């Protein structure tokens, strides 16, 4: 089977591509960048294209059996996602595995979540066998905060005090690879969650313990967060993410016991813990710092 991976040069899609290659599968990755096309993992082939450009759809959506569909958060996310579903249908795809978000119904007012709810619905009505993966906040987001955590002793992601069931991207990749290559997961949605809810102060404390220094949570002030984030991200994205963090702070995003069992079923083992992730990350960052 040939798998077309959208987002295959990014965090999740890259992990999905590597997982499939490790299993001996045939992998094709869409990228907008000739440079990234040249540095894909061994065995993967590239197709150059842009979901914002219908002119490339025929060359992108051809010669594949299954589609891993991931859309980056963008102000055109809905357009890009629907185009991919339509083109998968035109091309006769046998299966779609779609990356959505955990408990999307709780955030219909949040633009990137509203886009996913609509794309999920289009997939359900497409007639193509599907699996919808709904991950919580990724542990690996913390890679963005490396300098802030290590150099300044601050954990800056404003996830609040109510707790969210963060998840490891490697578990998402295993779930996706299982859904793309095995039967038994069709026409269902799966929450993908970690084993325990985590608060901002708990994430800070976990890094403090492995680095042997104080790491303090930056707090829940979303206006202060937006001022800092606005130095790097476009305004529409800061607005969108601030709404998401407000939801985390107000209500949390806890997995139910049933959702943890669901995760275990599609991943094939218990979800990885945040404690183990932080330990591995500290080892990795320390090794990289020594190598420089
Ligand atoms: N971060 C979280 O905690 C979290 C939690 C749940 C769900 N999610 C969802 O996960 C998704 C983001 O995944 P990620 O972090 O793996 O993304 P990422 O690392 O930012 O990678 C984005 C990927 O999308 C591709 N891409 C962007 N625009 C494109 C376009 N116009 N046409 C074709 N390809 C395009 C990029 O490819 P090139 O640059 O190579 O073209 C890249 O491979 C979002 O939908 C987000 O809502 C995130």
Structure description:
The chain is of the alpha/beta class and 292 residues long. The protein has a domain at 2-136 and 168-192 and 255-272: NAD(P)-binding Rossmann-like Domain (Rossmann fold, 3-Layer(aba) Sandwich). Helix content is 46%, strand content 14%. It contains twelve helices and nine strands. Strands 3-2-1-4-5-6-8 form a seven-stranded parallel sheet, sandwiched between helices. Strands 7-9 form a two-stranded parallel ribbon. β1, α1 and β2 form a beta-alpha-beta unit. The longest helix is centred in the C-terminal third of the chain and has 18 residues, at 274-291. The termini are far apart. It binds NADP nicotinamide-adenine-dinucleotide phosphate (NAP). NADP nicotinamide-adenine-dinucleotide phosphate binds next to α1 and β2. The site of NADP nicotinamide-adenine-dinucleotide phosphate has 28 residues, from α1 and β2.
Question: How are the SSEs ordered, and which strands pair?
Answer:
Elements: E1 2-6, H1 11-22, E2 26-31, H2 34-37, E3 45-48, H3 57-60, E4 66-69, H4 77-91, E5 95-99, H5 111-124, E6 129-135, H6 146-152, E7 154-155, H7 169-181, E8 188-192, H8 200-211, E9 216-217, H9 222-229, H10 235-251, H11 257-267, H12 274-291
This protein binds NADP nicotinamide-adenine-dinucleotide phosphate.
NADP nicotinamide-adenine-dinucleotide phosphate is lined by residues 6-13, 30-33, 36, 50-52, 70-73, 80, 99, 101, 112, 135, 137-138, 141.
């Amino acid at each position: 089977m040939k798998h077309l991976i959208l987002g295959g040069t990014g965090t999740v899609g890259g992990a999905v591509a590597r997982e499939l290659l490790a299993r001996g599968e045939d992998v094709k990755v869409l990228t907008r960048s000739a440079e990234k096309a040249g540095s894909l993992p061994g065995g993967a082939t590239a197709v150059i294209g842009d979901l914002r450009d219908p002119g490339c759809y025929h060359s992108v959506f051809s010669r594949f059996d299954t589609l891993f569909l991931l859309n980056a958060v963008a102000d055109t996310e809905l357009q890009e996602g629907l185009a991919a579903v339509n083109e998968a249908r035109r091309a006769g795809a046998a299966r779609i595995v779609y990356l959505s978000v955990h408990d999307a119904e709780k955030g219909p007012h949040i633009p990137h979540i509203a886009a996913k709810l609509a794309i999920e619905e289009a997939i359900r009505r497409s007639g193509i066998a599907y699996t919808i993966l709904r991950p919580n906040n990724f542990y690996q987001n913390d890679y963005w905060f490396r300098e802030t955590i290590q150099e300044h002793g601050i954990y800056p992601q404003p996830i609040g005090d109510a707790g969210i069931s963060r998840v490891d991207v490697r578990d998402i990749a295993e779930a996706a690879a299982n859904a793309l290559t095995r039967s038994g997961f069709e026409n269902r949605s799966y929450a993908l969650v970690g084993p325990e809810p985590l608060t901002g102060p708990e994430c800070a404390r976990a890094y403090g313990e492995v680095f042997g220094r104080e790491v303090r949570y930056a707090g829940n002030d979303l206006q202060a967060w937006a001022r800092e984030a606005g130095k790097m991200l476009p305004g529409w994205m800061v607005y969108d993410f601030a709404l998401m963090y407000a939801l985390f702070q107000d209500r949390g995003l806890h997995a139910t016991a049933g959702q943890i069992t669901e995760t275990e079923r599609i991943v094939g083992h218990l979800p990885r813990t945040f404690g183990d992730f932080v330990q591995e990350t500290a080892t990795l960052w320390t090794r990289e710092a020594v190598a420089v």
